[in-house]
Amino acid sequence: MADHVELRTGAYYDSVSLMQVSRAVAATSGVEAAQVAMATDLNLDVIRGMGFEVPAAAPNDLLIAIRGDDSGIEAGKSAVETALAELRSASGSSAGLGQAPAPRTLGGATRRGHANLALVSVPGPHATTEALDAINAGVSVMVFSDNVPLADEIRLKDAAAAQDVLVMGPDCGTAVVGGVALGFANVVSPGTMGLVAASGTGAQQVMCLLDAAGVGISHCLGVGGRDLSAEVAGRSTKQALAALAADEATTSILVVSKPPAPQVLSDIERYAAELGKPVHWATLGAGKPDLTAAVEGALRSAGQAVGEWPSWGAGSAAPGQGSLRGLFCGGTLADEAMLIASEELARSEGTHSRSEGTHSRSEGTHSRSEGTHSRSEGTHSRSGQIRSNIPLSPELALGPDLRDDGHVVIDFGDDSMTQGRAHPMIDPSLRLERIAVEAADPTCGVLLLDLVLGFGAHPDPAGELAEAIRKARATAHSDGRTLPVVVSITGTSGDPQGLERCATTLVDAGAEVYLSNAVAARRAVALLHKEAAQ
Amino acid sequence: MTTQPLHGLLSADLSVATAGVTLFADALRQQAVPVTEAAWQPPMPGTEADLARVLADPRREAANAEAVRRMMAAGAELVDVRPAREALGLEKGTFLHAGPPIEFARASGPLKGALIGAMLLEGLADSAPDAEAKLEKGDGITLEPCHHRDAVGPMAGVISPSMWVYELRDEVHGNTSWCSLNEGLGKVLRYGAYGPEVIDRLHWMNATLGPILQQAVRARVDQGSAIDIKAIIAQMLQMGDEGHNRNRAGSLMLLRELLPTMITADAPSTDIAEAVRFSGANEHFFLNLGMPACKLATLAGQGIPGSSIVTTMARNGTDFGIRVSGTGDEWFTGPANTPEGLFLGSYGPEDANPDIGDSAITETGGIGGFAMAAAPAIVKFVGGDVPFALQATQTMYEITASEHTAFQIPILEFRGTPTGIDVAAVARTGILPQINTGMAGRVAGTGQVGAGLVNPPPRCFTQALSRLAELATP
User: Fold this and answer.
1) Which has more confidence, B121 or A353?
2) pLDDT tens per residue across span B327-357
């Protein structure tokens, strides 16, 4: 067995393409492990973590690491070449007579294609430059990229307003414009409800619930997770609301958001009241309705009946002993799960903890990269506390190792986890590794997971997740524990991956599956207590 | 009717431009949406912060538009031919040279050779070793870039007081530029040769060719029909020239314009015959007119605050230097690269000197390497193939601010040549300007050894970008 490590300068490929290359190389016979990635700090950590010796490298260098027997390394190297060559030929840089080389900037592509919408998903530090191209060309732009500085976001949105174009993002995961799905998006039926979303997976969850209830949408205009923060102050939200108000296909509007800054929310509420169309609110926060409840409210006010949300294998799991472990790809889904779970946990553990006193949180601190305000309601009992990389309040932040014996929820899609890596909805490997870690941890009482289907997401996300769940439950079982697993699935029957098929695959692996993330979070907490799971 | 918000986005049929993850472009294609994908690459290392500042400079867009508008509006008429002493006010002992400023000690072989030759021509030294010693000592000798006098010179670009120069005029902006007379190919001063045949030829050019051309040009001016060099450039691009390494059609057209007044010049008929033969035999006769015409264009675009358009690219055989419209007269330099291409006779890569000459003014002005698609025949000379020539021009559109309104390329459906190199676009895309060039021998006195292709060093552009960032208004 030997290691081959090679560094190439001046060879840039995006993280998603390289993930596919890595897979192809790792699947080569004789190769035991392989990673082909840009040499970002995060990727270097991963590759060193695999036991490779890595030389000094710059983030724009391509790093190739292959472990295997001699013939395996040779086969792996040629697999790298084949895969990279395929990427190059697919990139459209033709050498044919008279055929123009592919444009290199978004501005060039916009001019070449006479585009009326632009989509930016380059690494965060470069996203502002590309987005400015679109704005200067008078074209609205969706910025999928995260890790964009807050000041840049404000600058972009001010420039966009001056050109009467919309900046959807940064960190905008999903959008639907005139029925066209952009970024991560589920296939939903057309209808008359327009969405404004300061949340990617939150918007996907809402669209999927609406779709299950038979309600279609006209457009879903993402505005980026920070748009309703005090700093950005709803710049894009107002533009999006005005556009939907003027849109003939839209009869009512639903605003979806991660927890917003209160003063911004009230400002937007005043603005929305003047639009002349009914506006509903799914803006998360302590004491506010969760996304499912907000959708139910919107349905009822439209005169629609609200039934039970779809589930698969509900009630089949046996309860577990220990703490809640939520491992999420969707940030808003993680947020919602924490809000619900901390309330539920506080209720069930409350009598015990009250003797330990209450813990007051400071008002107005900014713990999160999103720049949203702290969701302090004054006092909370410590019993409901959930530690997280996107904590509900600063003192609940996890350390760099992301481990704790108590309740933990991790958002694998957070900015800090995606530098130089594809989003976990595309590349689930970090989360799959963590599932295995939790399975072996005696303090893990229940696993709460999300799974997001649709365009952009992994082509077979349920298969890999089911395999990980099956292994995790087996690991726990062999340690003499029961490990219940609850999955919140965000998808529609029209999605390329198939909602029913994915749900069934997960149930077969021993999970309970719920379409409503809120229902899933409550169920997971209930499974920590014997009396709730008869 | 009220106008729809967001330019009617919500009711439009979408056509999407993407930069980044291919997956999302594929998902759009699955939905039958037209997609144009950028082949995005990270910018030149370390330029992110400067790029952000420069691209956000509110003056930039308008400043660049104005710079290229002026460049393309600039005229170029041949108005005189006279000695540099007179035209440029050159004093004895002052030598102009190509590229950014340099002292003799750091000068490359061909520049040293050309300076030695010029010393001999001016009678300031008795022999080559004597000339070299005096140049090394430097007493009474001043070296100065041609560009500092609004002049240009191919290869070593050495202009001494007694040499005759073309004088071109841009009446639109009131600018004048100058360039030496072309000596032909092979063992010539501009390639660093200084043997007796080189010096003899220069003497003949000063004594015979210059005065005949002067009479011919002045006669045209007196007739009220000064030769329009810009118009010849526009035509030669449609006749297989690119204006830097291929000037055949341009040279013939120039000769056609000059002949009637050359042959009526007041000079012995044998001298006139020799002057006509010499000019007609020289395939690069026109280069020394195309260059000052491009210099007039870039002069017009110079000095616009906030503009990131390159107004000079020039090499002295040691350093490559650029100047930018929005940064004034400051040079941004880096070590010149050595061209790659084809070699004459038994010469090889080890004989070639690094890139040299002011002739990259042609690329700066939107022709030369930037118009390579117009000159597929050039690829045999510089070592490429025809698709490469087409690609080269089309790639340059990615780093230029505009397309020339007068210079067009038939095979690209008469698309204007890529004009106005944008420093920010170079840093963003990592695409370097494509320059077609001759190669001089590394050793002083050798002459030409080949021709090929070369790029500027990236640091010229990253430094200029830094300076633009410092000067950017918030």
Assistant:
1) B121
2) 999 999 999 999 998 888 889 999 999 999 9
What percent helix, strand, coil does chain B show, rounded to 5? 45, 20, 35
SS3 A70: helix
Q: Which residues of B59-88 are buried (b: 16+ CB within 10 A; e: fewer)?
A: bbeebbbbbbbbbbebbbbbbbbbbbbebb
In a domain, B52, yes or no: no
* Chain B positions in Cβ-Cβ contact with residue A95 (cut-off 8 Å): 387-388, 391
Helix and strand element counts for chain A (H, E)? 15, 21
Cβ separation of A98 and B395 shorter than 8 Å? no
Same domain assignment for residues B104 and B227: yes
Q: Which domain holds residue B221?
A: 72-290
Q: Which of B290, B316, B337 is the last residue of a domain?
A: B290
CATH of A311-532, one of 3.30.56.10, 1.10.238.10, 3.40.190.10, 3.40.50.261: 3.40.50.261
Instruction: For residue B363, tell me if it sits in a domain.
Output: yes
Same domain, B275 and B309: no
Determine the average pLDDT of the residues in A508-520: 97
C-alpha B363/C-alpha B396 separation (Å) is 10
Is B45 among the domain residues? no
CB–CB of B164/B206 below 8 Å?
yes
The number of C-beta contacts closer than 8 angstroms across A and B is: 207
The domains of chain A are located at 2-90, 114-301, 311-532
Residue of A91, A105, A187 to mutate when probing chain B, most B C-beta within 10 A: A105
| The 3-state secondary structure of A255-283, one letter per residue | EEECCCCHHHHHHHHHHHHCCCCCEEEEE
Closest by alpha carbon to A285, among A205, A209, A222, A199? Answer: A199
Distances (CA, A) of B84 to B80, B96, B285: 11, 10, 18
A311-532: same fold as A114-301? yes
Residues of B in contact with A455 (CB under 8 A): 27, 30-31
pLDDT at A530: 53
Please tell me whether residues B317 and B413 are part of one structural domain: yes
Give me the torsion for CA of A471, A474, A479, A480, rounded to 10°.
150
Question: How far apart are the C-alpha atoms of B89 and B76, rounded to whole Å?
Answer: 21
Closest CA–CA distance from residue A419 to any residue of chain B (Å): 14
User: Which range is least confidently modeled, A49-58, B258-267, B268-277?
Assistant: A49-58
- Out of B13, B36, B387, the one facing A109 most closely (by C-beta) is B36
What are the tens digits of pLDDT across the range B19-77? 999 989 999 999 999 999 999 999 999 998 899 899 989 899 999 999 999 999 999 99
Report pTM: 0.80
Q: Contact at 8 Å (CB) between B251 and B300?
A: no
**Alpha-carbon distance A269 to A279, whole Å?**
9
Q: Give per-residue pLDDT as tens, A386-400.
A: 999 999 999 999 998
| Residue-wise DSSP of A278-329 | -EEEEE--TTS--HHHHHHHHHHHTT----PPPEESTT-SPP-SSEEEEEES
What CATH class has A114-301?
alpha beta
Residue B405 counted as domain residue: yes
Please report residues of A whose CB lies closer than 8 A to that of B56: 132, 155
Q: Which residue's entry shows tokens 């989003």?
A: A423
**Residue B216, φ and ψ in degrees, nearest 5:** -65, -45
Q: Evaluate whether A134 touches A111 at the Cβ level (below 8 Å).
A: no
Regarding whether B277 and B316 lie in a shared domain, the answer is: no
Backbone φ, ψ for residue A395 (5° rounding): -70, -10
B353/B220 same-domain check: no
